[in-house]
């Protein structure tokens, strides 16, 4: 994996060297086979974590912690929303459509009318978590090293003033859950930033750049999951280029403050933003390395 110490917040550039597609497919199949073997041996955590009110139950399905260094999950449009642990549409709908730009095939479309149906709820249309083809829930826990990759396009995406729109979140669940440790947020000044929240809910902007609607962006977030701020770590790539986070190649901070974390894609916004919004999601993956998940 190439890291470029001169990388800036630019969102264009030549992607780093990547494993050829044919070999990546072989690695993915090998990872699936290895995971199946581990499950058969009983080496993954099959004890169910407590559900929050309103979340769907997995029944007898287990929970897997992504420790294997291989691709563990992929949002296959052929499986529809079954690839996610849950969806949150307040109000909104999630469907599978052709890429509106005509480049990347079948794509998830997350759309909200923007009209609040509950005065006490913020507008959101989001996916939550990951569910493998065998029904297991993939969750990130203390000590896990994981990479999350995806491709996003937003159109329309209204913003306003000092308000925010969350486009991706690393969200914690269980005892101690609070503000998401990481959020990718669009702002009213035409920018998008990666924001970190520490256990005391103090926020820090790690990275930012201009945001253009109707344009595909490739993202990869590398995470070391830990409640210890000296062990938790964040890395970030945009369009194949590694980004500087507060002037460094990575950022150290507590990435866990509850029982587990998972991630969410879509549109979730403060009340000052009005109007319909649509987020498109393509090539979402979870794995052990950059090459496993890069779009």
Provide a compact summary of the structure.
The protein is mainly β and 295 residues long. The protein has 2 helices and 19 strands. Strands 2, 4, 5, 9, 14, 15, 16, 17 and 19 form a 9-stranded antiparallel β-sheet that branches. Strands 3-6-18-10-11-12-13 form a 7-stranded antiparallel β-sheet, with no helix packed on it. Strands 1-8-7 form a 3-stranded mixed β-sheet, with no helix packed on it.
Q: How would you describe the overall organization of this protein?
A:
This protein has a single domain, classed as Sandwich (Jelly Rolls). The protein has helices spanning 21-41, 290-293, and strands spanning 63-64, 73-74, 86-90, 93-98, 106-112, 124-128, 130-131, 137-138, 145-154, 164-173, 182-187, 191-197, 203-210, 217-224, 233-238, 241-242, 251-252, 260-269, 277-287. It is globular and about 40 Å long. Strands 2, 4, 5, 9, 14, 15, 16, 17 and 19 form a nine-stranded antiparallel β-sheet that branches. Strands 3-6-18-10-11-12-13 form a seven-stranded antiparallel β-sheet, with no helix packed on it. The longest helix is centred in the N-terminal third of the chain and has 21 residues, at 21-41. Strand 15 and strand 16 (241-242) form a beta hairpin. Helices cover 8% and strands 38% of the residues. It is built from two helices and 19 strands. It has 295 residues and is mainly beta. Keywords: Lyase. Residues 1-24, 44-76, 93-121 are annotated as: Disordered. This is Heparin lyase I family protein. Pfam families: Polysacc_lyase (PF14099). InterPro entries: Polysacc_lyase.
């Amino acid at each position: 994996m190439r890291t470029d110490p001169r990388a800036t917040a630019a969102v264009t550039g030549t992607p780093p060297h990547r494993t050829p597609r044919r070999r990546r497919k072989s690695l993915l199949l090998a990872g699936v086979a290895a995971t199946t073997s581990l499950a058969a041996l009983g080496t993954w955590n099959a004890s169910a974590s407590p559900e929050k009110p309103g979340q769907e139950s997995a029944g007898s399905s287990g929970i897997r912690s992504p420790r294997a260094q291989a691709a563990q999950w992929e949002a296959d449009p052929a499986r529809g929303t079954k690839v996610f642990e849950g969806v949150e549409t307040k109000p909104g709908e999630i469907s599978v459509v052709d890429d509106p730009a005509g480049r990347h095939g079948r794509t998830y479309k997350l759309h909200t009318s923007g009209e609040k149906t509950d005065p006490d709820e913020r507008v959101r249309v989001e996916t939550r978590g990951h569910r493998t083809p065998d029904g297991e829930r993939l969750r990130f826990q203390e000590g896990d090293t994981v990479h999350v990759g995806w491709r996003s396009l937003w159109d329309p995406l209204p913003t306003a003033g000092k308000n925010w729109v969350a486009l991706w979140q690393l969200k914690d669940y269980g005892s101690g859950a609070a503000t998401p440790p990481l959020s990718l947020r669009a702002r009213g000044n035409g920018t998008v930033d990666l924001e970190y929240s520490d256990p005391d809910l103090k926020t820090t902007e790690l990275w930012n750049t201009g945001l253009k609607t109707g344009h595909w962006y490739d993202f990869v977030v590398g995470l070391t999951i830990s409640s210890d701020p000296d062990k938790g770590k964040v890395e970030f790539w945009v369009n194949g280029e590694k980004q500087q986070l507060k002037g460094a190649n990575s950022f150290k901070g507590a990435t866990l403050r509850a029982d587990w974390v998972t991630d969410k894609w879509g549109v979730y916004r403060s009340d000052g933003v009005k109007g319909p919004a649509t987020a498109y999601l393509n090539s979402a993956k979870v794995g052990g390395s950059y090459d496993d998940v890069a779009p």
